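Recall the central idea of this unit: under ordinary conditions, the amino acid sequence of a chain determines the structure it adopts. In this exercise we apply that idea directly, starting from the sequence alone.
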Amino acid sequence: MRRLTKKWSKCGCKVRFISGITYYEVKRELLATNATRKLLEFDVSGVVRFFDTQPALSGDIEEGLCRRYRVLPVLNEIEVLEKASEIHADLKRQGRRLEDADILIAATAIARGIILVSHDTDMQRVTGIAIEDWLES
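Accordingly, the structure predicted from this sequence is:
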């Protein structure tokens, strides 16, 4: 995480986002494993939804993941769903598979024109996505 924090401070970005799907994936695992300390770090009360006017907060990882990111809605955005459908169809024609959650995350990034920061190499299957892997050496 420290590498990510260092990379983040160097990139000059003012607003950070996570997909609503990513929020769900992280939260469900923390709850399923009863990870109390990590749930506190995740800090649900600090979530800033995309349409809120309050800016995303900054700070160290200890401040809580969701205090530092805006959560982008997914399932109520028709352009994201349209792009996800296109990605699914394209991959299916190629005989390649990608989990629905990953398709929705990729579609959110493409539809919003933002760079996806991910260490998931499966995302490279998606045509037209801008990816940065901050964990690469």
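The first helix runs from residue 2 to 11.
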